[in-house]
Amino acid sequence: MPQRCDVVVLLSGTGGNLQAMIDSLHERASPARICAVISNRADAFGLERAARAGIATHVLDHTAYEGREAFDAALIQAIDAFQPALVVLAGFMRILTPGFVRHYHGRLLNIHPSLLPLYKGLHTHQRVLDAGDAEHGCSVHFVTEELDGGPLVVQAVVSVELHDTPATLAQKVHAREHLIYPLAIRWFAEGRLTLDEHGASLDGEPLGPSGHLIRY
Ligand code: GAR
Predict the structure, then answer these.
(1) In angstroms, rounded to a whole number, what is the distance separating the alpha carbons of residues 86 and 163?
(2) Does residue 211 share a domain with residue 128?
(3) Which of 17, 93, 146 maximizes ligand 1 atoms within 8 Å of its Cβ, making it the mutation to test the pocket?
(4) Per-residue CA distances from 187 to 118, 130, 204 (Å)
(5) For every residue of 103-171, which 3-state class applies, written as one string?
(6) Which residues form the Formyl transferase N-terminal domain (predicted)?
(7) pLDDT at 126 over 70
(8) What's the 201 CA to ligand 1 centre distance in angstroms?
(9) Which of 69, 104, 139 is the last residue of a domain?
């Protein structure tokens, strides 16, 4: 059996995605194992979810550091102490320095609540409604120096109905996030998902500009 893939999860908030990973990946035969959860906020509920699941937690308060470079250097040290094969951002609301992103090149994933490259940044559900879009969704991508950029791995598409509000869209999108993030982590852990100079590939086939597309 191939070696198990150790994963460090970074988060700042509720940890709904972390919970989905715990539920999906914490069985004996899983190819991935979450070895630590690190938060920049001591009050993040995600830390409680991790502790309940018996996962090591660590808090690194960004306000205690003078600037991004110093914080990211400390963050790298904290992460690397766990020697993970993969680092995943799960609602980690920090802009990362180029040095941090380069350090984890090819083994750093993020999830974002929109069909990237549409709607980078915040308030994606409201912006989709304001634009009158018929479809919305979420994206898992490898992280590069561009905020919410980087080669796409998998996207889940949901339809926008007339009665949708930012809250109902958030609910629909979160439910899909909780399916596609564990899926992408499994692919990586099984050695099926890779990043090279041509972009992201699954089973040796280029994933193309939208990544693997799933319509629920
Ligand atoms: C998720 O919806 C994720 O897509 C978003 O933060 C939320 C965290 O929820 N991330 C971003 O907006 C990154 N640009 P969670 O704490 O319940 O997993």
Answers:
(1) 39
(2) yes
(3) 17
(4) 24, 35, 12
(5) HCCCCEEEEECCCCCCCCCCCHHHHHHHHCCCEEEEEEEECCCCCCCCCEEEEEEEECCCCCCHHHHHH
(6) 7-185
(7) yes
(8) 24
(9) 104
Question: Can you give the pTM of this predicted structure?
Answer: 0.97
Candidate list 26, 103, 112, 174, residue with the active-site label: 112
* pLDDT, mean of residues 138-158: 95
Residue of 46, 214, 199, 194 whose CA lies nearest to 138 = 214
Question: What does pLDDT average to over the chain?
Answer: 96
Given 84, 104, 124, which residue is the final one in a domain? 104
Per-residue pLDDT reduced to its tens digit, 11-65 = 999 999 999 999 999 887 899 999 999 999 999 999 999 999 999 999 999 999 9
